[in-house]
Amino acid sequence: MLKIIFLVLMSGGIPVAIAMAGSALLYIWWTGTLPGFVVIHRMVSGIDSFPLLAVPFFILAGNLMNNAGITNRIYNYALALVGWLKGGLGHVNVVGSVVFAGMSGTAIADAAGLGTIEIKAMTDHGYSKEFAVGVTAASATLGPIIPPSLPFVIYGMMANVSVGALFLAGILPGILMAGLMMLTVAYFAHKNGWGADIKFEWPRVIKALAETLVVIGWPLMLWVLIVKFGFPAQITVFAGLLVLFAADKFFGFQAVLPIMTPVLLIGGMTTGIFTPTEGAIAACLWAMVLGLAWYRTLNWKMFVKVCLDTVETTATVLFIVAAASIFGWMLTATGVTAAISQWVLGFTNEAWVFLLLANLLMLFAGCFLEPTAAITILVPILMPIVQQLGIDPVHFGLVMVLNLMIGLLHPPMGMVLFVLARVAKLSVERTTIAILPWLVPLLGSLVVITYFPKLVLWLPKMFY
What's the predicted TM-score (pTM) here? Predict the structure, then answer.
C-alpha cells in the first residue's frame, strides 16, 4: 500500500521529498495505526545527526571556492601540466576536474564551474562542441568520488558507516576513472589527428611538476614529523601552512593552496586532528582565508550571496533526508525491506549476482532521482542484503555513489546533462548523444570498482 501511494504521487509529478513524506502520512491516516504527529517526529529525528552538520559546511566550502576565482587557477595549472599532450585541452578538462573535485564535492558544481571555462576554451581551439560537452560531463562525475563528497556524507549517515573511510575509499577509484578518461581523450586525439594546444616549454612544465610535488610531499613531510618524530600535530600543521604560503608567494604557484583543501581534510581526519564534521568547518575557513585574505578575489557582498545560496541548497538536501527518514522507517515497519531482502536472497546468495542486479537498479534509479533522494531511499532497502551477503558497506557505498553519478548524465532527470546543455547552448538531444561515448570509461570504471573491492578498501583499511 505504501509503495503504491508513493508511486502514484511520483507519477503525478510531485517532488520526490514531498512524495516520500506525503505517502507516509497518507498511509498512516489510511490505516489509522499511528498518530499523524509521528511523521513530524521521525522527520525531525532523521536530521538530528552530528554527521549531517558537515552538509552545510561542505556546501559552503564548495560555493566559496567556486565563487572566489579558484577555477581559473585550477585551469591554468592543468593547462601547464598536460596541455602540451595531443588532445591537450581534453586532458586539461579531466585533470582540472580531479583538482576541483577536492573542493566542490558535487558533480553539478564541477560542471557549472569549470565547465563554463573548459567548453569555451575547447571550442575556441577548434574542438567540436559535442566533444567538449562529453568530456566535461564525464569528468564532472569525479566531483563526488574524490573527497570531500556530499553524497558520501549522506550515505555514511544513512548506512552508519565512517565518513572518513568513505573519503579515503574514493581516492584510488577517482584516479582510475581519471586515467580511463584520459585514455579516451588520447584515443579521440589519435583518431582525429589532434595535436597539442600549447607548446611544450620546460619552465612551464617544471613549475607545474613542482606544484604537484609540493602537493604530494608536503603532507608526507608533516606525517613523518607528527607520526614518526612525535611533533605536536597542531603546531606542526600551522608551521607547515606558513611555509606553504611563503612558497606560494615566492614561486608564484597557481593552484597549490586550493589543492591543499582535500589534503588538509583527509590528513586531519586520518591523524585524528578533527572529525569529518570539524573537517568541513576547517575547509570553509581555508576557503575564506584564500578568497578573502590571500587572493582577495572574494568580497563581503559575494560572501553574503554565497551564504544565502548555501542556506537554500542545505535546506533542500536536509528536507530530502528528513522525508526519506520517515519513508525508510515506514518501509521497515511495514515489512517491505524484509520482504525485498527475502526475495533477493531467495533468488541468489551470490554476492557478485546481487552486485550486478544492484548496479542495474541504481543506474535506473539514478536516471529518475536526484542522488540524495536515491541514496536515502535505496540504503534502507539494500543495506540488509549487503550485510547478509558479507559485502563491505564502504565498498558498496562507493558503488552506489558512482552509479548515481552516471545517472546524472541521462534524461529525464540528469542535472549535469541539463546544466551542460545550458552552458554549451546545445539541445538536450545533442548533449545526450555527445555524452554516450563517455559511458565506456565510466561503465568500465564501475565494473572494476564493483568486482575488485581491494582497490576501494586498501586505503581505508590502512587508516581505519
Answer: 0.85
